[in-house]
Amino acid sequence: MHSDAVLAIAREAGALIEDIRARGAAVREKADGSPVTVADEAANAFIVGRLAALTPDIPIIAEESVAEGDVPTIGERFWLVDPLDGTREFVAGRDEYTVNIALIEARVPILGVIDLPAKGEAYLGIVGEGAWRIVGGDRQAIAARAAPASDPIAVASRSHGDAQTDAWLAEAGVGECVRAGSSAKFCVLACGNADLYPRFGRTMEWDIAAGHALLIAAGGSLTTLDGGDFLYTKPGFENPGFIARGAT
């Protein structure tokens, strides 16, 4: 699955983003109203180019490429790329933005890499093999935890809070809610530092695929709101609401 090579690509893209951040990156709106910067576009071009060279037979669905109308025909196996998830966090000067690369096979994620360039850490999940946190050259195995009998800890979006999420958290008896941006929320779950992550608002497949793979590899799960299987290659690559959980 080229996991080490994909990890290297994500980390190099993260370094590119940090270099652009240091020089300043103007923000503008895309057609759907979401923000984009030159860092998003540069990381997108870098990752797509490197993945195409690494696995020329595997199609690549990348957020900024799709925004420009570049949507290749996909089959059973394809890459899903969010080159800079958490652009709002990036623009605001916070450190919770990520580079996300996932490999999808038969509509489910089997490999996920998340790099947090501003924090100097990365995550790798290989479904069926395990999950790891990488800092520098050190690689530490991680695992999701089983939820406590009461007062579970939840993680929720910093930039996309809503009344439905707050009501769900109250009904679930959550004792503490950690607010975080981007796919970093999945890292919190995969490391065993939270138990639940509900999301009712709109997301795209590239937003969550790497985190989904990481969470599965760490022993957690992600389902639709009614508990069904969460599958990829949906129309327009748009996601329904979901609930991510630690180990059961």
Task: Describe the protein in words.
The chain has helices spanning 3-23, 38-54, 63-67, 87-92, 163-171, 184-190, 205-217; strands at residues 27-29, 35-37, 60-62, 77-85, 98-105, 108-116, 121-126, 130-135, 138-141, 153-157, 176-180, 196-199, 203-204, 221-224, 238-239, 242-245. The protein is globular, with a radius of gyration of 17 Å. The protein starts with a helix and ends with a strand. Helices cover 31% and strands 31% of the residues. Strand 10, helix 5 (163-171) and strand 11 form a beta-alpha-beta unit. It has 2 domains: 3-141, Fructose-1,6-Bisphosphatase, subunit A, domain 1 (Fructose-1,6-Bisphosphatase, Chain A, domain 1); 153-245, 3-Layer(aba) Sandwich (D-Maltodextrin-Binding Protein, domain 2), CATH 3.40.190.
Low-confidence stretches: none
String of helices and strands: HEEHEHEHEEEEEEHEHEEHEEE
Instruction: Give the averaged pLDDT, no decimals.
Output: 94
Termini, distance in Å?
A: 27 Å
Tally of discrete structural domains:
2
CATH architecture of the largest domain: 2-Layer Sandwich
**What about the largest sheet?**
7 strands, mixed
CATH H-level superfamily title of the largest domain? Fructose-1,6-Bisphosphatase, subunit A, domain 1
Task: Bin the helical content.
Answer: 25-40%
State the helix count: 7
Strand order, biggest sheet?
3-4-5-6-7-8-9
The portion of residues forming beta strands comes to: 25-35%
Estimated radius of gyration: 17 Å
Task: Briefly note the structural class of the backbone.
Answer: alpha+beta
- Number of separate strands: 16
What overall form do the CA principal axes indicate? globular
